[in-house]
Amino acid sequence: MPPKDPPLYPDDAISEPQHNGRGALSNASSRYDSEKRIRTTDGWEAPEQPAGDDELPPLRTTLTRDATRTILARNTSPDVPFDRSINPYRGCEHGCIYCFARPTHAYLGLSPGLDFETRILFKPEAARLLTAELASPKYRCDVVAMGTNTDPYQPVERELKITRQILRVLSDFNNPVGIVSKNHLVTRDIDILADMARRNLAEVFLSVTTLDKDLARAMEPRASAPHRRLEAIRMLAEAGVPVGVMAAPMIPGLNDHEMESILEAAMEAGATRAGFTVLRLPLEIKDLFDEWLRAHRPDRAERVLSLIRQMRGGALYQAEFGLRMRGEGPIAQLLGARFSAAVKRLGLNRIRYRLDTLRFAVPESARTALVDARRDARQMKLL
Q1: Which residue of 23, 43, 117, 282 has the fewest CB atoms within a 10 Å radius of its CB?
Q2: CB-count exposure of residue 168 (10 Å: 0-12, 13-18, 19+)
Q3: Which DSSP letter does residue 90 get?
């Protein structure tokens, strides 16, 4: 059985001096729940707390098996460059307060707040399911994206190794993969990624939101520290893995002044590609981010929210394709112009990688396994 409380890894993760290393400050009911709840304690859970200490007891991470029957998620959004992805986990222990995936926990009857970062669903059958889907005669090869919803290298991956198992399957089938992560743990799989890169089957982007360790500690409490992400870029590049940086999300008035510094640091570490997005605050994230901002940066909260509204037509979010990633108006245009100028100056994005989809082939072992599975299924129906 997997551990119920996966440990933090001090060499990788930012330490947790505030709120026990969690990003969200609350755990409000999801938009689908009729009742509203708050987190509280009667004091029995933490007898060691000194009198008068109002801190709630630490939240432990709990893991639940996800009984999904498919592993490839399909996407038809016109403003993202992939049509299929794999998410080994639902929820993410990194606890990034701005994470646009938080509202997906509401579909599970859980809160997009603290539940999202403490109640993680994992997919132990991912590699087997992927093998079956890739071996199907109906499958047509294209790049599989990982890290587009929750991070495939969040801390529990060190224990469960589901992402590593998935990479082995993709490598066996010669199916290309593109990864986005903000965890140094991605370097653990350099052996697989470098081998795939030699066949033009892999590329990795590290998401670097800020170079300010204090801001990162508050905003992304269990992700790798900024210098560790830059180190991951360097290690991947030295191993021959095409690597880029995502300066995302850019939050006006909070971290947008760092855009050029982030791109320059990533380029010096070996990144050859770069991208950026602006902050997205759909559904419950608006309230979670507002709460976090007023607690951690009260002196600039009103200004930051005002600047966000100026990029979003007066609202805190725009859901329209295209606009949701970039925003609109003078502030958004300036961010785009700054990014373009920095990329040109630093020589980024000169090479446009097109991962190879023509190498794809179903290994004989997978064909045999698929035939056996179908035979077993027919026999079960006859019983």
Answers
A1: 43
A2: middle
A3: E
What is the separation of C-alpha 219 from the centre of its chain, rounded to a whole number of angstroms? 14
Task: Scan for tokens 């500690």, then name that residue.
Answer: 217
Neighbours of 366 (CB within 10 A): 17
Coil, helix or strand at residue 326: helix
Q: What are the angstrom distances between the C-alpha of 245 and each of 7, 50, 239, 277? A: 27, 45, 16, 12
Give phi and psi for 203, each to the nearest 5.
-145, 155
- Per-residue model confidence (pLDDT) at position 25: 85
DSSP secondary structure code for residue 48 in this structure: T
d(CA 284, CA 286) in angstroms, rounded, equals 5
Pick the closest to residue 22 from 33, 8, 35, 12 (CA basis).
8
3-class secondary-structure state, position 314: coil
CA distance 288 to 111: 11
Round to whole Å and give the CA distance between 22 and 64.
19
pLDDT at 53: 40
Among 360, 363, 345, 376, CA closest to 263: 345
- 30 secondary structure, DSSP code: P
SS3 content of the chain, % helix, strand, coil (to 5): 40, 10, 50
Tell me how far apart the alpha carbons of residues 205 and 183 are, in angstroms, rounded to a whole number.
11
Q: Is the peptide bond before 249 cis (omega within 30 degrees of 0)?
A: yes
Per-10-residue mean pLDDT for the chain, 383 residues long?
39 41 81 60 49 54 92 84 92 95 92 94 96 95 95 97 98 98 98 98 98 97 97 98 97 98 98 96 94 96 97 91 88 97 97 90 83 66 62
